[in-house]
Amino acid sequence: MKKGYHGKILWLNLTDKTSHEEIIDDKIYQLFIGGYGLAAKIIYDRQKKGLSKFDPDNILAVMSGLLTNGRAAFNGRWILAGKSPLTDTWGDSNCGGDFAPAIKNAGYDGIFITGKSPKPIYIIVDDGKVEFKDAAHLWKKVDAVDTEVMLKDAHGNDYRVISIGSGGENLSLISGVVNAKGRLAGRSGFGALMGSKNLKALCVKGTHYAEEFNSDKVWENTTTLLKGLVNDLNDFGKTMKNCGTAGTLTDSAESGDSPVKNWMGIGTKDFPKEVADKINAFEVTKYEKEKYACYGCPFGCGGICEVPGNKILKETHRPEYETLCGFGVQLLNNDLESIYTANELCNRAGLDTISCATTINWAFEAYEKKYINEKTTGGLKLEWGNGKAVMELVKQIANNEGFGAKLKDGLKEALKNLKLEDKEFTAMHVHGQELPMHDSRNKEGGLGLGIGYEVEPTPGRHTSTFSGIDDYIEKEKKQTELNSKVLNKYYQKLKFQPKYNLSQQSTTDSEMGTSLKNASCGEDIINAMGLCNFGFYLGPMVPFVEWINATTGWNNTLDDYLLTGQRIKTIRHAFNLRENIDVPKIRMPERARGNPAMNDGPNAYSPNVLMWDDAKKAYFGAMGWDPNTSVPLKITLDKLNLPEVKKQIYG
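The structure assignment produced for this chain is given below.
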């Protein structure tokens, strides 16, 4: 049957080097769509609770999305999911590049990895045939980028590869998994989980195709979107087209979106435009050799660059906003070559640039306040703006050596390693995961971001909410009202009075809680589809409801899919409850909450400080969870068709 997905997953057991396929019922896809929705359902049902960070029974899911390999645009995202070694919560990490279609091509919607190999290995998956190969020649000898090159040379350029570098091999809790020579699924520390299993790489290819229910209808909607990207591209879209997320750097520093000096500083004062312009979009893109687009992207916001005279930067990805801000704005560093170098070192080692940069920012503050000194740092002068010290420290973290070895597991562990637990207030992390480069004190959208940092089952993620979902809801509301008027005229002709107002909307939840809930659930839909977030911010509205329905043959509304998003969010949340995580107590540092308030700059006297706890309760309530404990209510679990979660919580 044509439905856009295979209805099949692959299990790999590294302990006994076996594999088997599993057929997944269509009803599971209807309830969870795919991607990390499907991963959440499988892992929740199969994984024992309370496993330690590197227990071999921890499952690592490598997922495509529902729309991967189809005719929808922006469908090139793949996702890692499982229990995060970094936070001990549910973890997931989203990545572009070229690996997503390989999973579907191999005949699967996802690959689930368990066990631990006694020796380093890599795995080949080719149209259902699985081989476990010795990786002794790669382990701790070859970085992630060169591993991909070597494996393609050995087995064929048509393979797509994900691999770990020294970060994952050293079990760094801030390490990720690499594809496309430097694009990372960086968050949640899954490089360490992969390293703990002695798995260096996964090479995948195949010739399968999951046919869509109505491929012509999918393409019809895609064509309309593509025309919109030509005719109705907004300013953000134009910036992205020319220079990717790097183009937002200067504006973010000026507007207060970018945190500065470990969230102590003020962009307009400490890193003003004339300083920031040395690492602005023009300066970054002048090294660009060619544009880069992830699979399935008609846009191409990436760039392959070369910095003349620098051997390590002969071929490198253009740094993204998060990296430029973390190693640049945050550290008052406008030495662009040092930022490029830090980015490439992280890419090759498989380190999350967000966590790495935020950890280094903390070290610079600790040095300034004399919590640590040159004796502690091994002679490194961690002075704001010192690009050479930044490069050296990234290198040490990547190699697990010197002062960097104290930082290689992120902030929570760094405090313990340096016996500075009493300085917890300086460590900008949420439940172990380092904060991204978007300031929750900002008056424009900061509150929604901050709530996401604290309530998302994967804490500390800036891509956990989609605030633009309100526009889609408003559009559907207007269409529903129009349909209602047409039907009412028809009823009048029949002299029939309908029992309910067809356009009536629920008003049982507070406006703020409902808005936060919709944004949160909307993001889970995007991730389950395997779509890129940026496609939703370029101007034209993305026809994702139409895409899903035409791909699968379903006939659901936006409200139906928002309910699905709520179901996915709730089972991910229930995973954390089962791990005895007290979710309401997960908090950002008070500094990130705006307490005390800043007295200068664009984020001065942010109103968010007065709203955090009330907003969280409003969100929990709108989700159908107890506002105080965050435990899902029985009526909610019945509505969401989650009997397994209801049994776990209520017996």
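Interim note for the steering committee: DSSP finds 27 helices and 17 strands in the chain. Residues 469-650 form a domain with the Aldehyde Ferredoxin Oxidoreductase Protein, subunit A; domain 3 fold (CATH 1.10.599.10).
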